[in-house]
């Protein structure tokens, strides 16, 4: 049985691949019939010579009669294999069941294109019946020299519309039949450095800034989500776009669709994953988008969801066919006003999600319909986004699951989360000593009528609420501590000995 590789890390032990040119005896353009005509002429001439030699003792009329007979199925199959690049592709884990794909040199990908094969067969031998065409395809499938392979499942190389991009070396290469891609992104990769295009009064980075209220962590996560969808890797997480209507999440989702291409996307809300035949519609798809999941759904069995997320085997069943097992790991992206109810281990569910919160409100006065209808469809903009996303060097998501914004969305917010958000959003200092933080916390609890945690418990839990802009710090002087920050918590000023050093929390980025 063919070995199936399950990838769990970006670029894990992935070696540089060879980009082989198309062999001289293979067609370089499936749509160019002059080259095919030459192949057919050569084939029929060789067949005539073979029959003449084989029946050398027979009359000319007998040989002409043999030549008028239909080409045998096995000979037709061998002829097709001689000038087409063919592979049997299987991602199955439990049986030798594969599909015949033909490499399209102009597209740069392998396609399960039975119609094209049938056209070539009929063009070569017009007298074939439908049944005989099917017999030729069957003979072609069972030719021993057609290799059985897996489609490319790693993430180092990304198939763009016009080339293959190496995310390690940041280099583009021409398409090659030696790397088995069955799909590609719909946008060209441009080798020259691109700037964000100005489209009337729209500029992409300004739009992201508006979309996420200037929150640098969410802007960074938005870029990481774009990259994850483009390269087909989601760090074994389900991507959630969460927010009310009119917050821009639908436009962001449409941008992703434009980058990937509709033919590479399956549409399915989370409650559709439980359908018996659901996984059969995922074959050949790199992304599952669920648009606006209803908030009242209750997912009782999330096993298929998690298996697809982690790349574990799933059962695939077409109607009236025997089920079989496949490895699949499409990126799962779902949008909703609120996170739906999912039955099961809450810790495991939380661990498998990555959430991007949309909270900017666009009303009729400040909503620009051209953004969704026009600007995010602009080829120059899409080329810029693709290039920047591919150059990010994405390995894992910026995890904002412990942020106040996300916890509010999931109804998981605590008094300590509220205090932490209040502290870091108001204070202008670049360093906050432990003594000040504890003093501010006790002042906060006093105002709110809350019983404070003990100092030991407070500092243990407070570390968990730190945003990506702050981290714990060793002893520091108070030069970066602004005493004016105390006014946000009490009318009484906070005092410390300025000559001493204190442990606390330092700002990494603003």
TrEMBL record:
Domain SF3 helicase: 217-371
InterPro entries referenced in this protein's UniProt entry, alphabetically: DNA_primase/NTPase_C, Helicase_put_C_phage/plasmid, Helicase_SF3_DNA-vir, NrS-1_pol-like_helicase, P-loop_NTPase, Phage/plasmid_primase_P4_C
Keyword Cytoplasm in annotation: no
The organism's place on the tree of life at top rank: Bacteria
Pfam assignment, any one: D5_N
SUPFAM superfamilies named among the record's database cross-references: P-loop containing nucleoside triphosphate hydrolases
The keyword Phosphoprotein appears for this protein: no
GO molecular-function terms, A-Z: ATP binding
UniProt keyword annotations, A-Z: ATP-binding, Nucleotide-binding
Name of the molecule in the record: Primase
């Amino acid at each position: 049985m063919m070995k199936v590789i399950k990838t769990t890390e970006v670029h894990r032990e992935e070696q540089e691949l060879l980009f082989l040119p198309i062999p001289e005896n293979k067609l370089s353009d499936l749509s160019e019939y002059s080259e095919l005509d030459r192949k057919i002429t050569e084939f029929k001439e060789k067949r005539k010579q073979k029959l003449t030699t084989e029946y050398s003792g027979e009359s000319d009329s007998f040989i002409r009669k043999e030549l008028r007979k239909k080409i045998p199925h096995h000979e037709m199959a061998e002829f097709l294999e001689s000038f087409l690049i063919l592979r049997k592709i299987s991602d199955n884990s439990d049986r030798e069941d594969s599909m015949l794909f033909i490499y399209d040199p102009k597209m740069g990908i392998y396609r399960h294109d039975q119609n094209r094969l049938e056209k070539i067969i009929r063009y070569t031998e017009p007298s074939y019946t439908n049944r005989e065409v099917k017999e030729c395809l069957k003979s072609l499938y069972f030719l021993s020299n057609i290799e059985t392979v897996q489609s490319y499942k790693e993430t180092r190389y990304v198939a763009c519309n016009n080339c293959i991009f190496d995310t390690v070396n940041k280099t583009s290469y021409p398409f090659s039949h030696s790397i088995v891609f069955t799909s590609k992104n719909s946008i060209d990769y441009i080798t020259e450095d691109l700037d964000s295009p100005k489209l009337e009064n729209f500029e992409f980075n300004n739009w992201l800034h508006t979309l996420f209220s200037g929150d640098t962590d969410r802007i960074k996560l938005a870029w990481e989500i774009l990259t994850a969808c483009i390269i087909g890797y989601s760090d074994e997480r389900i991507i959630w776009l969460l927010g009310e209507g009119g917050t821009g999440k639908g436009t962001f989702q449409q941008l992703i669709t434009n980058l990937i291409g509709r033919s590479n996307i399956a549409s399915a809300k989370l409650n559709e994953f439980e359908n018996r035949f659901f996984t059969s519609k995922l074959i050949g798809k790199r992304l599952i988008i669920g648009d606006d999941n209803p908030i009242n759904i209750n997912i009782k069995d999330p096993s298929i969801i998690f298996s697809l997320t982690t790349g574990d085997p799933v059962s695939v069943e077409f109607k009236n066919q025997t089920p079989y097992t496949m490895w699949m790991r499409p990126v799962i992206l779902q949008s909703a006003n609120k996170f739906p109810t999912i039955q099961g281990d809450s810790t495991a569910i939380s661990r498998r999600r990555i959430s991007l919160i949309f909270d900017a409100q666009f009303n009729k006065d400040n909503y620009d319909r051209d953004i969704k209808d026009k600007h995010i469809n602009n080829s120059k903009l899409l080329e810029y986004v693709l290039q920047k996303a591919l150059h990010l060097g994405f390995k894992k998501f910026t995890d904002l699951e412990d942020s106040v914004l996300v916890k509010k969305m999931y109804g998981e917010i605590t008094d300590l989360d509220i205090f932490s958000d209040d502290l870091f959003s108001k204070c202008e200092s670049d360093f906050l000593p432990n003594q000040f933080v504890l003093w501010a916390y006790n002042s906060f609890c006093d105002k709110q009528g809350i019983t404070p945690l003990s100092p030991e418990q407070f500092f243990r839990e407070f570390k968990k609420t730190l945003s990506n802009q702050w981290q714990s710090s060793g002893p520091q002087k108070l030069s970066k501590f602004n005493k004016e920050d105390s006014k946000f918590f009490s009318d009484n000023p906070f005092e410390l000995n300025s000559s001493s050093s204190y442990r606390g929390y330092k700002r990494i980025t603003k």
